[in-house]
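User: Sequence recovery, please. Input:
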């Protein structure tokens, strides 16, 4: 019964996550969803800034604190390790839904592209960023990343696979393609409002803080393999080429560096 509950919980958490991330695309790009980043009744700008910063800070704190090894060691004293990742994903999704619901629009326009073909091209670039995000997760292990693989392994009575290090496709050019995709998606917009700028700037700053914390964990986990990879491949922008083949240990396994997978 415990394994069945864990399986259902993990699947339910994923079913909350998936529409949430799809809503995020519409929220940022201003399409399809009932409330996007510029929709709603404007409020005085001090209120909007404070509320929006609090909402983004809640996500950043939840996302970073629960990702740390020390927190997970404490947390798994009270919850099964098989649902630790699902719980992380579920809480992150709920915080994002709160942000979408309570976001205060700041609609003053900073720039707007009036030429329709160029505006469409910029929107397409933003959608390309989301494509990079999603494909990066599948290049590694999408379902392990979002907690499904763990509950399936637990239900089947299998031990979780030990993390190993590999660098598929995008990961040969940048160490964090998931984060690169988010940055492209957030900044490529044909109409940049004050609220959108606040969202993009704060989330980008958080991404670089997250990279610092994540890479520290990756060095602890993979040691010299990750140090060599860090020396060989650029962090976000593919401005330098890899020299020679990957070192031993960089081309096998289920959990490469970059993005959210080694939280």
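Assistant: Recovered sequence (263 residues):
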């Amino acid at each position: 019964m415990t394994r069945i509950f864990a399986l259902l919980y993990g699947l339910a958490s994923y079913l909350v996550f998936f529409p949430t991330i799809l809503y995020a695309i519409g929220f940022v790009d201003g399409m399809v969803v009932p409330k996007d980043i510029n929709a709603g009744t404007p409020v005085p700008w001090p209120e909007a800034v404070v509320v929006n910063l609090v909402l983004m800070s809640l996500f950043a704190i939840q996302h970073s604190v629960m990702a740390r090894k020390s927190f997970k060691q404490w947390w798994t004293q009270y919850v099964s390790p098989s649902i630790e990742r699902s719980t992380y994903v579920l809480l992150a999704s709920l915080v994002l839904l709160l942000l979408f619901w309570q976001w205060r629009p700041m609609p003053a326009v900073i720039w707007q592209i009036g030429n329709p073909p160029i505006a469409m091209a910029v929107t397409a670039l933003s959608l390309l960023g989301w494509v990079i995000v999603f494909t990066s997760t599948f290049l590694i292990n999408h379902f392990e990343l979002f907690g499904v693989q763990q509950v399936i392994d637990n239900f089947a009575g299998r031990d979780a696979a030990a993390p190993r290090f590999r660098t598929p496709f995008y990961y040969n050019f940048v160490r964090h393609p998931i984060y690169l995709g988010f940055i492209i998606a957030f900044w490529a917009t044909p109409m940049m409002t004050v609220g959108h700028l606040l969202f993009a700037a704060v989330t980008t700053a958080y991404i670089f803080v997250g990279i610092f914390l994540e890479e520290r964990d990756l060095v602890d986990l993979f040691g010299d393999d990750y140090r060599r990879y860090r020396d060989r491949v650029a962090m976000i922008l593919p401005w330098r080429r890899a020299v020679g083949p990957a070192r031993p240990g960089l081309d096998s396994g289920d959990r490469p560096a970059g993005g959210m997978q080694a939280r």
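The two ends are 29 Å apart (CA to CA).
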